[in-house]
Write a structure and sequence with these properties.
The complex is a heterodimer of chains A (527) and B (238). Chain A is built from 19 helices and ten strands. Chain A has 527 residues and is α/β, with parallel strands linked by helices. Chain A folds into two domains: 292 residues, Glycoside hydrolase 38, N terminal domain (7-stranded beta/alpha barrel), CATH 3.20.110.10; 110 residues, Families 57/38 glycoside transferase, middle domain (immunoglobulin/albumin-binding domain-like), CATH 1.20.1430.10. In chain A, strands 1, 2, 3, 4, 5, 6, 7, 8 and 9 form a nine-stranded mixed beta sheet that branches. Chain B is 27% helix and 25% strand. Chain B has six helices and ten strands, in the order H-H-H-E-E-H-H-E-E-E-E-E-E-E-E-H. In chain B, strands 3, 4, 6, 7 and 8 form a five-stranded antiparallel beta sheet that branches. Chain B is globular, with a radius of gyration of 30 Å. Chain B starts with a helix and ends in a 15-residue tail after the last helix. Classes of the chains: A alpha/beta (527), B alpha+beta (238). Chains A and B meet through helix 1, strand 10, helix 15, helix 17 and helix 18 of A and helix 1, strand 1, strand 2 and strand 9 of B. Strand 10 of chain A pairs antiparallel with strand 9 of chain B, so a sheet runs across the interface.
Chain lengths: 527, 238
């Protein structure tokens, strides 16, 4: 019997940034960088572990927008071009850095990019298949998210929430072969009542930030170390603060270690323009290539060369430290509880690899150490936990999010509050359309479905988040306004029965997410 | 997503830089027809401009559309920002204004001022007259949104937008949905209820289970059904 459970959750999400209308769209690179630096390194780590017969159990949420992009033919082809170019650059870098302190890093990048290419092709360019493979092998529990990562507590229309949830479940089931048991509420944002909607759709659990559980009423006896049941019967798991801080904090957390790779020094910015020109934006805009040769070094601008071996050793040390702390924690907590405590440690997947370059290595070391070096803690998923411990306290979680200050302020502030009068009007109109044209057919159905897509895309919490930061907001504002404007135009055309085939066709081509969407889900239909 | 922000910021800086650099050669091309002006010593930017003489970012982006300011519907929507702040936005149609004018005097708009009246309706079925307490926020003349500071977490609020007449009386124009502010501390309710998964077996009351507490719970649940009082679930059609 184990003393405690460790529940690692990686939330993988990117907003829908597919731009068929332009060959080189800067925001599309978010996807390519995440594939190269996060998703494929994770997949490769899972493969090595499987090859070495080391069992592991992780939870991942794959957001529907991410699944849609990873399974999109155009983006897959563009990624091939991207990684080919990057591989070519890493070949040239090997020559350029010969006999310098950067050579070992250059070799590392060459290996990384080549393995990305191999892995990408091995899964037929569809990385969702890779995650599904580990799901089917019992290694991953994959949960869903809001269809476009909409911020649910600020939707005033219940059916808008239902549409986010049901559209997500439908897409998830189609690509992963089974219905998700759990959901990552976008931004961990919850308000009482959302659980009842999850219940309707067969969702059994969701994840919250710490105070969402701690401030629940009635007061949970075991704090965040056991889930609670909402009055609807859906379980809520709360984030453990201690394990979060060790990984999340860029100052006191592991990722800030001086041996680790420095994120901000990239040859896309540092090298001679003529040399790097073929590998940056074709318009001559310097961008991150992903090749970075320095380590964090310290609080100084004088950065020292990165040493991949030293960094890897550090990742191993940190994995050991993390495990040791979880053991101590489990020992302590289990004395206070009638069951093993569950330590829930959720992270943005993109933290691993993209931001914390050594993150995937750390995770791999951790899994190995948990398997070989100790017996106190076992890795578990929320779904497994509920099967083992089906008797839990009932309490109503506290409305909360994992954003700054813990509530809704990031997504409702002076920089982005203007979006809600439009989003709410569009949601109400969509609900009306779903009722009014329930039995529609032909082109009208296409227009209704496209209107639903445009509304969902406008709802992405990513746009409000970017606006709240106050920098680089142009793209987020453009996306919000454009999708809402598309919605308004479609609404008018549908209502007045004058659907313009040209416009509709263009929007279907440009915003092609959720091919199987059913606009009726905005009328409260359950998937 | 959050993690891509540095990249994002990085890209925009570069973008801006490139923009600046790009517009130089455009000048230069024009000026090239007038060599006498070009005779100045080239600046640093001009030296670099030669190799950056390409367009910045695809220029064929569609223009960003403007959204309508109003949708022709009467609505006052109240949202929760955090335990101590609410946000309200509203839209009052001309029809509604006319209705109010004819109901009262046409001179109403000149002789009165707009206020938001905030009611604490925690635990009650609000009918307009039975709020536990209320306070007013005076508004500027041309606003259609407001952040409202509220005194307590875990309370239910409702807001009216209306006019205060010179004699102090208040005319409601629109009423908002109710919202409940989140807690910002541990619950003081200790009695526990436990449940088997899916409620498959039975619901069991544990710990303190005095009839009083259960009664109070039932009462509270009855008056504030989950899903109605929360900010996310105002349904204008209900």
């Amino acid at each position: 019997m184990h003393t405690g459970y460790l529940c690692l959750i990686l939330h993988a999400h990117l907003p829908y940034v597919r731009h068929p209308e332009h060959e080189n769209f800067l925001e599309e690179r978010w996807l390519y960088e995440a594939i190269t630096e996060t998703y494929i390194p994770l997949i490769n780590a899972f493969e090595r572990l499987t090859g070495e017969n080391i069992p592991f159990r992780l939870t991942m949420s794959l957001s529907p927008t991410l699944i849609s992009m990873l399974t999109d033919g155009l983006l897959q082809e563009r990624y091939i071009k991207h990684i080919d170019k990057l591989t070519e650059l890493s070949d040239r870098e090997l020559d350029r850095t010969r006999n310098t302190a950067f050579y070992s890093s250059a070799q590392m990048y060459q290996n990384l990019f080549r393995s990305c290419r191999d892995t990408f092709y091995r899964y037929d360019k569809n990385l969702v298949q890779a995650f599904k493979k580990f799901q089917d092998a019992g290694r991953l529990e994959i949960i869903t998210c809001g269809a476009t990562h909409g911020f649910l507590p600020l939707m005033m229309n219940k059916n808008a929430v239902r549409a986010q949830v049901n559209t997500a479940i439908e897409l998830h089931t189609r690509h992963l072969g089974r219905r998700p048991e759990g959901i990552w509420l976008p931004e961990c944002a919850y308000t009482p009542g959302i659980d009842a909607i999850l219940k309707e759709s067969g969702i059994k659990f969701f994840i919250m930030d710490t105070h969402g559980i701690l401030f629940a009423s009635h007061r949970p006896r075991y704090g965040v170390y056991a889930p609670i049941f909402c009055p609807s019967g859906v379980a809520a798991f709360g984030r453990d603060t201690e394990s979060s801080k060790q990984v999340w904090s860029s100052n006191e957390g592991y990722p800030g270690d001086y041996q680790y790779r420095e994120f901000y020094r990239d040859i896309g910015h540092d090298l001679d323009f003529d040399y790097i020109k073929p590998y940056i934006h074709p318009d001559g805009i310097r961008i991150h290539t992903g090749i970075k040769y320095f380590r964090i070094t310290g609080r100084t601008e004088q950065k020292e060369p990165y040493d991949p071996v030293a960094a890897m050793e550090k990742a191993a040390t940190h994995a050991g430290n993390f495990m040791f702390n979880r053991e101590v924690q489990a020992d302590y907590l289990s004395g206070l509880m009638d069951r093993p405590p569950i330590i829930v440690a959720p992270y943005d997947a993109e933290l691993f690899g993209h931001w914390w370059f050594e993150g995937p290595q750390w995770l791999e070391f951790l899994i190995k150490k948990v398997h070989f070096d100790q017996e106190k803690i076992a890795m578990i998923t929320p779904g497994d936990y509920l099967k083992l411990h089906g008797y839990n306290q009932v309490a109503t979680p506290c409305a909360s999010s994992w954003g700054h200050k813990g509530y809704n302020e990031v997504w409702l502030c002076g920089n982005n509050d203007w979006i809600y009068r439009h989003l709410h009007a569009a949601s109400d109109r969509m609900e009306w359309l779903a009722g009014q044209f329930y039995n529609a057919d032909g082109r009208r159905v296409r227009a209704l479905n496209q209107a639903a897509r445009e509304l969902l895309l406008a709802q992405s919490s990513d746009w409000a988040f970017i606006m709240s930061t106050g920098t680089m907001t142009e793209y987020a504002i453009r996306r919000t306004k454009t999708h809402l404007d598309n919605f308004i135009r479609l609404f008018d055309q549908i209502k007045e029965d004058r659907i313009d085939e040209g416009t509709l066709h263009y929007l279907e081509y440009k915003n092609n997410i959720f091919p199987d969407i059913d606009f009726r889900s905005f009328g409260g239909k359950i998937a | 997503m959050t993690l891509f922000l540095p990249v994002l910021i990085g890209s925009v800086i570069v973008l801006l830089l490139a923009l600046v650099l790009f517009y130089r050669p455009a000048f230069k091309t024009v000026k090239a027809r007038k060599p006498e002006i070009l005779a100045d010593t080239p600046t640093f930017a001009e030296e670099y401009s030669v190799e950056l003489a390409e367009p910045v970012r695809p220029k064929i982006l569609d223009p960003v559309p403007e959204l309508p300011r109003s949708y022709g519907m009467d609505r006052l929507v109240l949202m929760v920002r955090d335990p101590y702040w609410l946000y309200a936005y509203w839209e009052i149609t001309a029809t509604k204004m006319d209705e109010i004018s004819s109901q009262f005097s046409p001179g109403l708009w000149e002789s009165s001022r707009t206020v938001l009246r905030v009611y604490d309706v925690t635990g009650i079925d609000f009918n307009g007259n039975n709020a536990l307490c209320s306070f007013d926020c005076s508004l500027g003349s041309n606003t259609d949104e407001w952040y409202i500071s509220v005194p307590s977490a875990n309370r239910t609020y409702c807001v009216d937008i209306g006019r205060v007449l010179p004699d102090g009386s208040f005319i409601t124009i629109l009423r908002s949905n109710p919202v409940t502010t989140p807690r910002d501390s541990l619950s003081d309710r200790f009695d526990e209820e436990w449940m088997w998964i899916e409620g498959l077996y039975f619901r069991q009351q544990m710990g303190v289970s005095s009839p009083l507490i259960i009664e109070e719970l039932a009462e509270r649940m009855g008056r504030l059904p989950i899903g109605i009082s929360s900010p996310g679930f105002y349904n204008p059609h209900e």
